[in-house]
Amino acid sequence: MPENNFVVVDGAPSPLTLDNLDQLNADNGSNIYLTSVDDITTNPSWLNGVKPDGSGKTNGATSCAVIVNDHGSGLVDAFYMYFYAYNWGGRILGQNVDDHVGDWGREHTMVRFQDQQPQAVWFSQHAFGEAFTYDAVEKQGVRPVAYSGNGSHANYATTGKHDHTIPGLNLPAGPIEDTCDQGTLWDPLLSAYFYSYDANSKAFTAYDSSYPVAWLNYVGKWGDEQYPDSDPRQHKILGIEATAEFTSGPTGPEDKQLNRTEVCPTSNDAICRVQTALGP
């Protein structure tokens, strides 16, 4: 249900669907949270999402949106936006941190093309990420391979442990680690919506008229708002905000710098460097 400051939005469309979600923008939309009806601490079954079948398809769940931005002059960016029902942020000193409903858009990959030839791949990782040349990354056929962090869904070009304590710096070990391996294969293109994006008008157009479009314009959050300290479900280590067990759901694809100049988005004032070999 849509909520603003933990109060249900009055007059919201009912039922709320991907075809009318953008109507929430008219009522202070950026402060609206799509809040789960279930208490997530009871582990409702939908928290686990849909496991891909033997072919890599998520049956009954459209779990990816592919968004193509044609910059002109042969330069094209193809974004692969992945949706996960729940984010498990990991543990610090035995406590879960950064758990939230919805993990959407923040975790994505992007392939940059020049004159129809792939040049570079961006792997989002929480607040920042990494970029590599297309030639450097692992591939199945011609398609780049990304490894999703266990629970957190950050995207990496290699398996193993990845410390992300310092945004933009991927180290093999540290206090806040993601772990990924060659687990279940997921082919997001087998169950996806496909769109083009016009940067001048900020308009999305579906490649198939059956695909919903309005939801891409929604500017609110995809998940619960961070539970207040007064909520018995919320915990923090020594009251430190950065260690909150439950945090707010993320914004969607429209907020992910779809018209970026460099392969990397502008984030944390970091310099975008496209690496030519795999590594931290």
From TrEMBL:
<dbReference type="InterPro" id="IPR009291">
    <property type="entry name" value="Vps62"/>
</dbReference>
<dbReference type="Pfam" id="PF06101">
    <property type="entry name" value="Vps62"/>
</dbReference>
<protein>
    <recommendedName>
        <fullName>Vacuolar protein sorting-associated protein 62</fullName>
    </recommendedName>
</protein>
